[in-house]
Amino acid sequence: MSSRAARYTVAGVDVLFGVLGPVTAWDGSGNPIALKGPRHRAVLARLIIARGRVVPVSLLVDDLWVAPPSDGVGAVRTFVAALRRVLEPDRPPRTPPRLLVTEGPGYALRPGPDGVDAWRFEEAVTASRPASELLTTLDEALGRWRGPAYADVADEPWARAERSRLAELRLRAIERRAEARLTLGRAADAVPDLDAHVAEHPWREDAWRLLALALYRTGRQGDALAVLRRARGLLVEQLGVDPGPELRGLEEDILRQADHLDPTSRLWARAAETYDRTVATGARSRLESTVGILRNLAMTGGGGLEAAREQRVPAILAAEELGDAELTARVIGAYDVPAIWTRSDDPAQAAQVVAAAERTLAALPAAGHEAARGRLLATIAVESRGTGTRRALEAAREAEAVARALDDPALLAFALNGAFMQSFERAGLAARRDGIGAELVELSARHDLASHAVLGRLIRLQARSALADFGGADEHAAAADRLAERHERPLVGVFTAWYRALRLAASGARTTEAEAAYLAAAERMRGSGMPGLADGLPSLALLCLRVQHGRPAQADLSGWGPYEPWARPLVLLARGRADEAAGALRDVPEPPRDLLFEALWCLTARAALDLDDRAAMRRAYGELVPAAGELAGAGSGLLTLGPVSRYLDELAAALGA
User: Fold this and answer.
1) DSSP alpha helices (H): ranges in 467-577?
2) Tell me, what's the pLDDT at 3?
3) Does 10 have pLDDT greater than 70?
4) Cα–Cα distance between 636 and 117 in angstroms, integer?
5) What is 443-486 written as a DSSP string?
6) Alpha helix locations (H) across 322-389?
7) Residue-wise pLDDT tens digits, 482-499
């Protein structure tokens, strides 16, 4: 099934008709239905435009031909019979059709309210929804357009009014989508679409208004005024009319910087000014407020995440200098930013945070402060990601026990994040991580913990991928994207884009298609502020894809980042340097116990098989056996080498087991 066809699959709909482009139809699985010639499509189009009403055969004849043939009625009946055969191929003989029915003097098409893409599009554009839901709905709805509506009957007089109506609806959808973005504070995202929109449709005053407002909210006041003056010039010079009251009023409001144009920014500026004026410079509350800001910054991704990382340790050290263990515990524990990737972006900083948390735990009074202790323990578990230390595992267990004893949902969510980070003591633990993710999803839904709801969905996406349940993983990816849209979590899209590349690679798609998807995902990762994820990952993903398809590794020894030791033997083999590859394989360390544990062991297994290194084969076999039912690397949600069982079978055969 093509990706475009899949887009049109609708639950409970046997046939979906498409008129947002050439007239077509898809079956319930999303496969295109062969509609034969242009007359068949014209009959179908004419009946769809009638929206379930009966169209007399005589009218169909007049609409299909300028000069109808002598047997026009018979020809129309032939077209209808052919359409019925392809639209309901499993209909038993002599039973009445359900879709294309005969009534009185003519025919009617009865596909149901979701059976025509244009009808679904109209509902999406006209329905009242919250801004986040509306944005998602309109993105999907606009994506259904494959060209001008009713493209293959564009010259027919009977199609003209409906084509014009749908074209107007499409323009309104673009404008409503821009309004939703503005409501959600995503003015910068709205500018490119609106810029193109007014260039193609310069007489739409509301589009000019939205573009000017979007520019103003991105800090481009001069550009906003220039846009309004350009709109005025076009309207006056080419139509001889002045702009309407909304455009005129917007220009006046921009010139006086009216508060209502950007209420969020104005509110923030005033609150920050008041805080700075009223809270003393050395006040301890400033430290706690700073950590709250850093926490929110970290979730914005890119520069915000980098800035939060830079300022976090200085904030902790400043708290420690005050000699107040309780304050320091609050400063450390308030930074409960969900973590999904098991390689640290800054290992040295993570070690500093862990050390500070341990010092603060020791300094806290022996009695009380259980919640603070729980947060410090959760911090140790999360920040010790990938280290595999006994202390980190103990901290995760203790934090979870404290949270459950206190019945503290927010602390439990943080502790479960630590439990996830420490759930890699051996291969094959995807089912355990799926349970952690499921509890996070349920807990977050009950207590409105938006950030940890996203984390739970991403954990389940990874776990279901490892277990080859891509239907389940798809649902969690879609849910994560919806939550990210609603709660402004841009980094989520990095992970779901990589997941969809993995999904393509695991589906058996052509290598070139999967490579292109990985490269596109890597491009999206630029500027994300996550070096622990980005470093070496694109090269590793392409290597895994090659190994999965039995192809030699890339011949380049650069760009591997931390994964170079596991790539080197295969790269040297691809260069024909078997002796050096054998030496590199002997030097390969045990992989970190993290999301790529199984993937790196499978790369080691592949090199060991190719080099007939029986010692390395035995090590790889022993480590991978617990993951026999999983896909190698898919638990990362990013890449895969195929089933672990395939490598185990090869290893067993080579070892004579």
Assistant:
1) 470-487, 492-506, 511-525, 531-534, 537-548, 564-574
2) 35
3) no
4) 36
5) HHHHHT-HHHHHHHHHHHHHHHHHTT-HHHHHHHHHHHHHHHHH
6) 325-333, 347-363, 370-383
7) 999 888 888 999 999 999
SS3 content of the chain, % helix, strand, coil (to 5): 65, 5, 30
SS3 call for 101? strand
Q: Which of 476, 515, 341 is CA-nearest to residue 417?
A: 341
For 518, phi and psi rounded to 5 degrees?
A: -65, -40
Q: Which amino acid is at 99?
A: L
Query: Do residues 425 and 433 touch, judged by C-beta distance below 8 A?
Result: no
Of the candidates 569, 567, 644, the one whose C-alpha atom is nearest the C-alpha of residue 613 is 569
Question: Looking at residues 383-412, what average pLDDT do you find?
Answer: 96
Q: What are phi and psi of 378, to 5 degrees?
A: -65, -40
Average pLDDT over every residue of 605-623: 97
Six token digits for residue 548: 């999965």
Q: Within 549-587, where are the H helices?
A: 564-574, 578-586
Angle between the N-to-C axes of helices 492-506 and 450-466, in degrees from 0 to 180, rounded to the nearest 10: 10
CB 633 within 8 A of CB 594: no
Q: Tell me, what's the pLDDT at 657?
A: 63
* Beta-strand pair 106-109/100-103: antiparallel
Whole-number pLDDT of residue 13:
52
* Tokens at 190, concatenated: 């709205």
CA separation for the pair 311, 54 (Å, rounded): 70
Q: SS3 of 279, please?
A: coil
Tokens of 295: 């926490």
Q: How far apart (Å, rounded) are the C-alpha atoms in residues 295 and 272?
A: 17
Residue type (1 letter), 488: E
Q: Which residues contact 3 (CB under 8 A, 6 or more apart)?
A: none
Strand-pairing partners, residue 32, are 26
